[in-house]
UniProtKB/TrEMBL annotation:
KW Signal (keyword) present: yes
Protein name, as recorded: Uncharacterized protein
InterPro entries: Pistil_extensin (IPR003882)
Signal peptide (residue range): 1-22
Source organism superkingdom: Eukaryota
Organism of derivation: Acorus gramineus
Pfam family, one: Pollen_Ole_e_1
Stored PANTHER family: OS01G0164075 PROTEIN, POLLEN OLE E 1 ALLERGEN AND EXTENSIN FAMILY PROTEIN
Length: 172
């Protein structure tokens, strides 16, 4: 009788895990509803980078900011034997997606940080530390993405660049 109760509890846990984990996939990729992701998932990071207007230079806000294309973002992971660095570039909407190598898994994602590297816009060259874009942003888990390989999608930011000095801004 006791073994029947244990079996019922185990089945209940498995069913609840399948329904809970199956709800996290909202993006493109293979259908993951009802599937259980593996314990270790490959790490991928997404975010958006903006250019702040002159009037908010030095103020930690994104009011009036516009998406910045061509920005280079660095993903630095010290979770494996050898540190891993991956670079990504933003698209026309300021969006970037960086996929870590397969040796960086969700078990070590807490040892990864995302950093602003460079901006192609001459009037918006100074990286800000908004959401730790300059000192290194910790990754926030967003969702799982299934397919031939399972990914743990993390989000950082939004990040921002601003004009380097007041001379780059038009007079008020």
């Amino acid at each position: 009788m006791a073994s029947l109760k244990i079996l019922a509890c185990v089945l209940l846990v498995i069913v609840s895990c399948q329904t809970t984990w199956g709800l996290h996939d909202e993006g493109p990729g293979f259908e993951t509803e009802g599937l259980i992701p593996p314990l270790r998932n490959i790490v991928a990071v997404q975010g958006i980078v903006f250019c702040k207007p002159c009037r908010f230079q030095g103020i930690p806000t994104l009011l009036g900011a516009s998406p910045l294309s061509g920005v280079v973002v660095r993903l630095q992971c010290d979770s494996s034997r050898t540190p891993t660095t991956v670079y990504a570039t933003t698209d026309k909407n300021g969006y970037f997606f960086a996929q870590a190598p397969t040796n960086v898994t969700s078990f070590g994602a807490n040892r990864c940080r995302a950093y602003l590297v460079s901006s192609p816009l001459a009037t918006c060259q100074k990286p800000t530390d908004l959401n730790w874009g300059l000192t290194g942003a910790p990754l926030r888990f967003e969702r799982w993405l299934g397919g031939p390989l399972w990914f743990a999608i993390y989000t950082v930011g939004p990040f921002a660049f601003e004009p380097a000095n007041a001379t780059e801004c038009p007079p008020r």
